[in-house]
Amino acid sequence: MAIARLTEEERAAALAELPLWRLSADGTAIERRLRFPSFAQAFAFMTRVAFEAERADHHPEWSNVYDRVTVVLTTHDAGGLSTRDVEMARFIDGVAG
Ligand code: HBI
Q: Could you tell me the pTM of the whole model?
């Protein structure tokens, strides 16, 4: 299903509500770096997000080093940011705090 890329205005409005996320240099993705008390808790976070990603059919680009997780969200089908990225970022903020 084709999904629309956010306009500049929509992107700015969305980012204003996602202060923990940074816009990539090329404007096509948002990134958040997280740190957890342990590797086990970092991986548990990734597991919860993984199940949501499957449910939403929207998957993060992410990496994990011990207690840290870096999450990058972009919509490949739109060639940039879409509402799916905003919704997933909100979900992640809800899980990670
Ligand atoms: N995840 N981040 C992201 N971007 C996509 O475009 C995307 C996805 N997960 C699944 C998906 N697209 C499928 O809908 C398409 O590959 C068919």
A: 0.96
